[in-house]
Amino acid sequence: MHHKILIAGGGSAGIATAASLLKRRSGLDIAVIEPRGEHFYQPGWTMVGGGIFSKEQTCRSEASVMPSGVNWIKASVSGFDPDNNSVALKNGTTVTYDLLIVAMGNRLAWEEIEGLEETLGKNGVTSNYRYDLAPYTWELVQKTRRGRALFTQPPMPIKCAGAPQKAMYLSCSEWEKQGTLGDIDVEFHNAGGVLFGVKEYVPALMETVERYGIDLAFTSNLVRVDGPNHKAWFKTEDGEVERDFDMLHVCPPQRGNQVVAHSALADDAGYAEVDQATLRHARFENVFALGDCGSTPNAKTMAAARKQAPVVATNALAQLDGKSATAAYDGYGSCPLTVENGKIVLAEFTYGGNLAPSFPSWVLDGTKPSKLAWRLKAQALPPIYWDGMLKGREWLAKPVPIG
Ligand code: FAD
After folding, report:
1. Which CATH number fits domain 110-254: 3.50.50.60, 3.40.50.1010, 3.40.50.450, 3.40.50.300?
2. Measured from the CB, is residue 133 less than 6 Å from ligand 1?
3. Neighbours of 177 (CB within 10 A)
């Protein structure tokens, strides 16, 4: 099998890039390698855990999002051989290409927390980071009337760095509404040292923390769970700390995609090593990577992938035509922090944590909780994803020329 453009991974970034390529050049020979029959809108999982969306609203069939004209290879990549322009599949087949785009996401390393995998989905242990578990978060929120609720955040980089907090604030918002918040001890155990990496958003988040009476534990990293006995252990600067819990929401440690990490495409950390502006591979000029599997130091978000896909499409076509890259990615990422059911602090920033609001502050001030930002997340962003980003309609995502 040979294809002019081969895309490894048919998640958010892979499908968006295929659509953006076809929009620029219809009839292009593109194949997408993706083993899964379902396609997920992962940003919706926070809303599932908060009882706002059903899980079904966040899932469609992969066939329904595959752009027409694209060859879908329903298989898993098992290895890359960029010196020979070829990709090995788990089923034993080899596919060759003129140009490769890697979009295989990152890896959720559940197994790095001792005792976690066997208790997920029961004993009060949940995570919005899995489609099947997000409804259990909401079930637990509704069931918990008193006791202790723990929310965890592992070391960076993780996808959607705000998601562990979002789960906590939406839970607190519900307990506040039910009048039970005062009877529940809420703790946020964060392996890092700050609440959010871009300082302008921290005051609004600290107000939220104080409003809900949350105890913050920084440099506190979940290492072990005993589900049946409702105990969790954290590595801290003062040694290991044991906490009892009634509810435990876990954000798993995250790593580079395993296949990428074990290939010549990887940097030392296991991510596909690309130039942070052009998204072209550092050593193989006919390889690009984007989304959560890439080495770029942006916030790993869908919003980032939405901006990266047109950049990769533009530069990949230039490469095929023997021309230089013309488009640059500025590091844009976004994190809609659901501080309560009905209000969001909309963090938007580029490389280096420079604020990059999509709207003037008189319309929407992202540093303050706003109802408009909530409507954006709850009503506008899902259609922008399914009908815009995955269809090559590049709303608010025009690539910037290389400066
Ligand atoms: P994915 O969408 O994960 O796709 C990777 C694809 O590669 C998958 O389909 C997978 O099956 C495939 N793949 C993996 N291995 C192989 C292989 N060996 N061979 C072939 N295919 C393979 N982002 C936001 O912008 N805003 C938010 O509010 C937000 N909230 C989030 C909340 C949660 C709980 C989570 C989990 C994520 C959230 N995100 C949010 C992050 C966002 O969903 C991701 O950054 C985005 O999905 C990244 O897209 P991707 O294509 O790189 O990875």
Report:
1. 3.50.50.60
2. no
3. 11
